[in-house]
Amino acid sequence: MSDSPLDWMALANKKAKGKRPEFFDEPEDDRIYSILIALVGEVSVLRTRLDTVERLLDEKGTISRDDIENFAPDREAGFERGALIREYILRVMRGPIQAMESLQEQEPPIEDVSRELKEI
To answer: What is residue 93's DSSP assignment?
Structure first.
């Protein structure tokens, strides 16, 4: 184990090994999706931190950075946070989720479509 402090910026900007996964036909779409997911993560962390500040202010009236850094939510607060985060992520990801669901919908067999067209 090294005595030197952990360089978070170097770790955050470190390039992953191997090829980046591709989900879309256009590389720009993958980059935008990656940015979106990173922003969703950052906002989620900010919401959790704000929840900590609000809970501490309700409890103590004034807070310090140490209070924030050392805060451990109780079971009920953890449950509330989890529900808020799930709701937030589902709202943000509603479009992609609906698009995926539409891809999974079963299309009628070609024979049925052909029969319907003949009846027109």
So the answer is: T
Furthest CA-CA distance within the chain:
79
To the nearest 10°, the Cα dihedral for 84, 89, 92, 97?
Answer: -130
Contact 52, 64 (CB under 8 A): no
- ∠104-109-113 over CA atoms, to 5°? 115
- Sorted by where each begins, the domain ranges of the chain are 25-94
pLDDT in tens, 28-55: 888 888 888 899 999 999 999 999 999 9
Between residues 2 and 15, which one has the greater pLDDT? Answer: 15
| Euclidean distance between CA atoms 40 and 36, whole angstroms | 6
Mean pLDDT of the chain: 85
- Quote the tokens at residue 27: 């590389």
Tokens representing 70?
Answer: 């050392």
More confident residue, 107 or 45: 45
Please tell me the pTM assigned to this model: 0.62
What lies within 8 Å, CB to CB, of 57 at 6+ separation is: 63
